Amino acid sequence: MAERLNIHLQKSTKEKLDKFKQMRGKEVQSDEFWDLVVITAVDEDQKSAYEVQITEKLERNELPRGINYHVFADPPGCKIGNGGSTLHSLQCLHDKYGKSLSGFKVILIHAGGFSQRLPNASALGKLLTALPLGNPLYQMLELKLAMYVDFPSHMKPGMLVTCADDIELYSVPAQENVVFDKSGFTALAHPSPLSVGATHGVFVLERAEMPRICDMEYRTCSQFLHKPSIEKMFKCNAVCKREGKEFVYTDSTYYFDYGTSMTLLTLFSEISPLTCEIDAYGDFLQALGQRATVDYTENTANVTKKENGLVEIRRKIFHRLKGTALNVILLNNSKFYHVGTTEEYLFHFTADPCLRAELGLLSAAFSVCDLERSEKTRVCVTHSILHPSVTVSQGSVVEYSRLDARVKVGSRSIISGCWIGTDLSVPSDTFIHSLAVNLDGKMGFVTVVFGVRDDLKKSVSSPAHMKALSLFEVNLEDCVGLWGLFPEKVRFSGDTTMCSLWNACIFPVCSNLKDSFVMSLGMLKALDSGTNFTLLKNATLTSLQETLQNKNLEEMLKFRKKLYEDILRVNLSNSV
């Protein structure tokens, strides 16, 4: 049974990829694809980064043509969350298109944020994370569009809301389609273990008159639970049972029709300007369904930052959306993958046989490399040039990089945007990422290095407590001592009441990309061996946070473009 379902999933996924492949670089018709593709960004800087890259992708025939791609930045000021971004994007679309919006099918992809748990996506955006798939190479944007390629032709005008850091695969019975034609909200639901339900949204289904077991089923949801305890899942009758196994239906992507978008715009006018973060899942969906109550508005247990006004805004959301239908499409043969952390990224792209088989992931995609010296079935190389003598150990990812002769990469490491010189070795469990930066009126390069398990978000209240932060299992105070720095002189960028690895100014700015890598690798080796490493006198030190605020987007894209041209040239010469 499981094998049959997996074969269906692989076949269905391949059909979607093949269909999207035919659309790349071609003019598409409004009845076969989205009218608008909308992407959210955390600020104007990230918006510009997305716009530049989308323009380049269109020029390289990587995306369908004939439709409008929009990037909307969150307004300046406090964070507004993906719920706030949804409302803000709706307002931007309404301002631009007016009543014409009533005839449009729109996909909204939430791609804002700084990706602190997957920092190689921080500079250029998580929606443009490379995938070892396709020619031209896929990024998350193309995969999202490919996996939903069948939706627009079976959808009433409205908006599909999804996130940039997850992958949903599904199959439906032959001659059937996922149809979005109902008023209110319609959500996709995936069967998941109860442990997964505890960290996601869970649907409580109305009883079906004639329940049937099939790949897809249309149901009504009476209540939506946001990150519930297992006890609450049972209490609310959210737990289902099949073949002796207990499971729940969890959330991923949802749709709402044009009429509902007008209701949301009315809500936005009542609660703007926003002064706190709103969750597009927890705060919207918990207001829906016959059994929804106002009680959830007081529960801030799952809120990362408790802000004034959140409860009041939640109440307004509840009263505005109360009575709106929550329809659910049960995708019983589906998989949901989250790719938002370094651990998930490494596992899914190198070690997970399921995703590799389902998506047809490659060990090397759009790259020049000879993996004979590497453990080729357990590595991932994308958009990179590796000298034939390079060795990459199992579980490692190399993206947008150039590795010279006899470079060795340890296991479970991430190499991103780097130029690694001859005979250098990267230890196992290392995250290392090079960026171009403009600081003090000069252009330079910074290479940040962390352990793949390091917590960049963990913070302490002042620099004096930096000993509680650890880099490669060495406390930060000892780290800076090994590098010849005085702990009391170490600077933290931004808010100094939240000192973390994210804003610790410990990385030197260098004049060229290769030297930058050598310098940071030396710092890492010092921690590994416990020996001193002396930074250059008067070196400018910066943090990952500060580097992103001052990144030189043009220079980073230039490096990628040169790689692109060199890979194309080698591939062309090899094919002659």
Task: Indicate the topology.
Elements (H helix, E strand, L loop, with lengths): L1 H22 L12 E6 L2 H16 L8 E6 L7 H17 L7 E6 L29 H8 L10 E6 L2 E5 L14 E8 L1 H4 L3 E5 L10 E11 L3 H6 L4 E3 L2 E13 H14 L10 H4 L24 H12 L4 E6 L2 E5 L3 H10 L1 H7 L4 E2 L14 E3 L2 E2 L4 E2 L4 E3 L2 E2 L4 E2 L4 E3 L2 E2 L4 E2 L3 E10 L2 E10 L7 E2 L9 E2 L2 E2 H7 L16 E2 L6 E4 L2 H17 L11 E2 L1 H6 L3 H23 L1
Describe the model:
The chain contains 15 helices and 30 strands. The chain is of the alpha/beta class. It folds into three domains: 23-169 and 339-361, no CATH class; 172-332, no CATH class; 362-567, no CATH class. Helix 7 packs antiparallel against helix 9 (310-321). The relative contact order is 0.10. One of its GO terms (molecular function) is nucleotide binding.
Write a concise synopsis of the structure shown.
Keywords: Nucleotide-binding, Transferase. With 576 residues, the chain is α/β, with parallel strands linked by helices.
